[in-house]
Amino acid sequence: MENYRYPNLKNVKDLIYKKGLANIDKQRVPLTDNNIVEQALGNHGILCIEDIVNEVATVGPHFKEVNGLLCPFTLNKPDNKALFGKKKLYKDGGDTGNRQDQIN
């Protein structure tokens, strides 16, 4: 991530539970059931959504397989007031850049 620091476990968990979609047979399927995860990644020892959260947050040994299953997140745009003016680095009083510990 270019503009931000790494999120904590709670933020990763919230994103995956709220916006997590799996790519199964070229279809986007919401991650609502552990059976979906077990059928797709059970041979790697990943049996539930909590295992996916752990692999993504810690970049575990099966991160590549989990990342291949997950679809990209679609996030909401920020308010018009959130990003304005010329782009300056965050440390210089702007909006872009590494927010260090303030991301969470």
Automatic annotation (TrEMBL):
GO terms for molecular function: RNA binding; structural constituent of ribosome. One of its GO terms (cellular component) is cytosolic large ribosomal subunit. CDD domains: Ribosomal_L7_archeal_euk. It comes from the Eukaryota. One of its GO terms (biological process) is maturation of LSU-rRNA from tricistronic rRNA transcript (SSU-rRNA, 5.8S rRNA, LSU-rRNA). InterPro entries: Ribo_uL30_ferredoxin-like_sf, Ribosomal_uL30, Ribosomal_uL30_euk_arc. This is Uncharacterized protein.
